[in-house]
Amino acid sequence: MAKGNVSLSVVRRLPRYHRFLKDLLNAGTVRISSGDLSAKMGLTASQIRQDLNCFGGFGQQGYGYNVKDLYEEISKILGLGKHRKAILLGAGNLGRAIVLHMDFSSRGFELVGIFDSNPELVGLKVGSLAVQDSAGLEDFCRQHHPDVAILCIPKEAAKSTAAVLVRYGIRGFWNFSHYDLALDYDGVAVENVHLGDSLSTLCFRINELEKAEKE
Ligand code: NAI
After folding, report:
1. How far apart, in whole angstroms, are the C-alpha atoms of residue 88 and residue 150?
2. pLDDT tens-digit profile of 101-144?
3. To the nearest 10°, the Cα dihedral for 70, 172, 101, 96?
4. Alpha carbon distance 55, 162 (integer Å)
5. Relative to the CA of 175, which ligand 1 atom is closest?
């Protein structure tokens, strides 16, 4: 388990380890050397060792890592077995795509409700759930106690909606709206997701490559 305060940058790398290990497991790989794992992941072996040492360390000198054991340990560290309840707000283009394409259960969540403020969308089936009127959110939260809200609503609505949801007991936000929710609330976790940031980073990196080629 975690030794003291593990930095968020280490935690952010864990899902990637988890994903690579799952692929290895699916391919029938029983063990992998730290050198092979690092080459696959584009990290140094010492970075992997340092990351995993934050949780007690797992590999064995001369053996490497047992893929299944490490996969299961990382699942445990991430708490993926808990299946926390999640609701999604904003059943527009993005919200519907997330409902239809995200495998919530393998990531520790169960999607239990979809809400939208547009009455025309109420009743629309998205996957196995029907969109509900966001006017019913409070009652729903009181009854089902969701932990997490996925925000796929416009920027203008994000801050006030988050404040209301915290009052309803929401402990975590997966926030896609283009408003960066700050950690204004004690005991509430926020993950702001901006696909555009990743694209801008790609832009920078390509520009840098071109510059280097010209030098
Ligand atoms: P959309 O207009 O198709 O859907 C937004 C939905 O939210 C609508 O159905 C609307 O009725 C609903 N809504 C508005 N206010 C609400 C409230 N207070 N409670 C519940 N529902 C509410 O928009 P789209 O394309 O699905 O995008 C949603 C948001 O995500 C936009 O703000 C967009 O800018 C953002 N976005 C973010 C991305 C990212 O990487 N973070 C990528 C793409 C879009």
Report:
1. 5
2. 999 999 999 999 999 999 999 999 999 999 999 999 999 999 99
3. 180
4. 32
5. 41
192 lines ligand 1 (CB under 6 A): no
Mean pLDDT of 1-29: 85
Question: Is residue 194 within 6 Å of ligand 1 at its C-beta?
Answer: yes
In 3-state terms the chain splits into helix, strand, coil percentages (rounded to 5) of: 50, 20, 30
Residues 6 or more apart whose Cβ sits within 8 Å of residue 127: 99, 100, 111
Rounded to whole angstroms, how far apart are CA atoms 171 and 67? 32
- Ligand 1 contact, 200 CB (< 6 A): no
What is d(CA 16, CA 38) in angstroms, rounded to the nearest whole number?
12
Give per-residue pLDDT as tens, 175-188. Answer: 999 999 986 678 89
Q: How far is the CA of 168 from the centre of ligand 1 (A)?
A: 21
Q: Is the pTM of this model over 0.90?
A: yes
In this prediction, residue 1 carries a pLDDT of 47
Q: CA-CA distance, 72 to 112, in Å (whole number)?
A: 26
The protein residue whose alpha carbon is closest to atom 5 in ligand 1 is: 92
Q: Whose CA is nearest to atom 2 of ligand 1?
A: 92
Is residue 54 within 8 Å of residue 10, measured between CB atoms? yes
